[in-house]
Amino acid sequence: MLPRPPNRKLYWIVAIAFLISNVSALKVDYQEKYLTTRLDKFNHEDHRTYQQRYLFNDQFWGKSKNTDYSSASCPGPILFYTGNESPVTDYWGASGFFTEVLAPKYGAMLVFAEHRYFGKSMPFGDNSFEIKNIGYCSTQQALADYAYLITHLKKQYNAEDCPVFAFGGSYGGMLTTFFRIKYPNLIMGGLAASAPFSFLGSGISPFAFTEAASNTYETARPGCGQNIKVALSDIEKYAATPDGRTKISKDFNLCKPISTQNEGIEVLNWAVGGLMGQAMLDYPYPTEYGISISGWPVNNTCDRIHNHKGDTVSALAYGIGTFYNYTGDKTCYNIHTDVPDWGKCCGWDYLACTEVYIPSASNGIFPYAPYDQAADIKACKEQFGVDLDPSLSETLWGGFDSLSQSSHIIFSNGLLDPWHTGGVLKNISDTLIAVVIPGMCFY
C-alpha cells in the first residue's frame, strides 16, 4: 500500500484553500493525443471504434521530492480530469490548481479526457448528432471510456501501481463522483467542483438556479437586477410588433434582422443565456471558458447598463457585450453561432434528455417559466425521438442521499455560482468533505 498523508481531511482542506490563494506563473502545456477506443463498451458484438481525444503532460511525473504518492513501483500519481460538455481544451486553462500546483508538487502525470460527442471526440464525425448515431452519447459510455483510457495508460507507462485522483467541475464534477462510485478500483478519490447533486432526489426547488443568479446581479450593483428584469420584459413586448423587432435588431446589432415574434424570443433567450452564463463565470480576472469574458463580468455588465444613456433594451444590449463581445472583434451578432462552446447543440441537449435530466424553471429577474415536466418530455421526443425518464439519473447513480455510500470525495462550491444551490454544502462523512468558498464562482 502506498503511503498517505497522516491527516487526509486536513490535507485536502488546506489544498483547496491554496487553490483560492495561490497564483502561479508556471507555464504548463499539453500534448494532444488520441486513443482508438470501442464505440459501445457494453456490446461485445459491436467492434466499431472511434478516436477519443485526451490532453497529456508527464513533465513532472516522478520528478518531485515529495513521496506521499510514489513508491518503488510508481513514479507518481495520475491526476485525471473527467471531461464534460465542451472541448476538453477549455478545461486545461481553468485547472491551474492541478496543472501548476499539485502536479509539480507531487510529481504527477496529467491526463484530461474528452467526453465523447464533444470537441474532437466525435464518433461519427459531422454526422455524430444524427438520430441514428447520437444514442452512444451517454454518461455510462463516457465513464467506461475513461476507465479504458486509464487502464491503457497504466499499461503503456508501467504505472499499474500508481494511484489515480479524478477531478471535474459542474457535470464533470458529477462524472468524477459517478466515476468514484462506479470504478473505485481505479479511482482513489476525487474533487467534484460545482456539481449540482442536490437536484437528484432532494426536492430542491427547480427555481433555485435562477433565484441565485438573480441575487448575484442585485448583490453586485443594487438596482441592476431590476433594470435587467425590466429590459427583458420590454424585449418580450417588442418582439410582438414589426417596429419592436426592428428596434431589437438595431439595439442588439444583429447581423440578420429578425422578422417574426419567435425570432424576437430567440434573441431574448440568447440574452438570458449570456446573463446566466456570466453569473456562473463571475471570476475576478479575464478568462477563456468556451468564450472570452472580462474579469467580474456581472459587475461590468451592471456598470454598462447603469451608465448607458439609452433605454432599457439598448442598455442591456450594450451590457451583454461584456459576455458576448469582450474582445471587441464582433461587428455584429449571430445569436445562433455567437455562443460559448458549451452552449452549442447537441451533445448536452441529448444528455439532458436521457441520463442527466435536471428539473428547471425560471423566475427572479428572468422571464417567469414554471417547471413543466410534460413539456420537457415532449421537447425531448420531438428533438431526439427519446422518451425522457426523469428518474433515470437516480436509478443509475442514486439520489443525493446515496452519496453517503461512497468515500474520499471533496465537494467544492463557490457561493457566487448559482449552481451552488444544488451542491453538497455540508460534510457527509469524514471522507466526503464539503468546501464552501464565499466570494468565488463556478469551479
Concise structural overview:
This protein has 443 residues and is an alpha/beta fold. 37% of the residues lie in helices and 12% in strands.
Structural class: alpha/beta
Spatial strand order of the main sheet: 1-2-4-3-5-6-9-10
Q: What does the largest sheet look like?
A: 8 strands, mixed
For the residues shown, what is the average pLDDT?
Answer: 91
**Secondary-structure element series:** HEEEHHEHEHEHHHHEEHHHHHHEE
Helical stretch tally: 15
Count of β-strands: 10
Question: What's the Cα radius of gyration?
Answer: 22 Å
Unreliable parts: 1-23
Percent of residues in helices: 25-40%
DSSP strand (E) fraction?
5-15%
Dominant shape:
globular
Amino-to-carboxy terminus distance: 32 Å
Structure notes:
- The chain has 443 residues and is of the alpha/beta class.
- 37% of the residues lie in helices and 12% in strands.
- It has an eight-stranded mixed sheet with strand order 1-2-4-3-5-6-9-10, with helices on both faces. The chain has a two-stranded antiparallel ribbon with strand order 7-8.
- Helix 7 (224-238) runs antiparallel to helix 9 and helix 7 packs across helix 11.
- Residues 1-23 have low confidence and may be disordered.
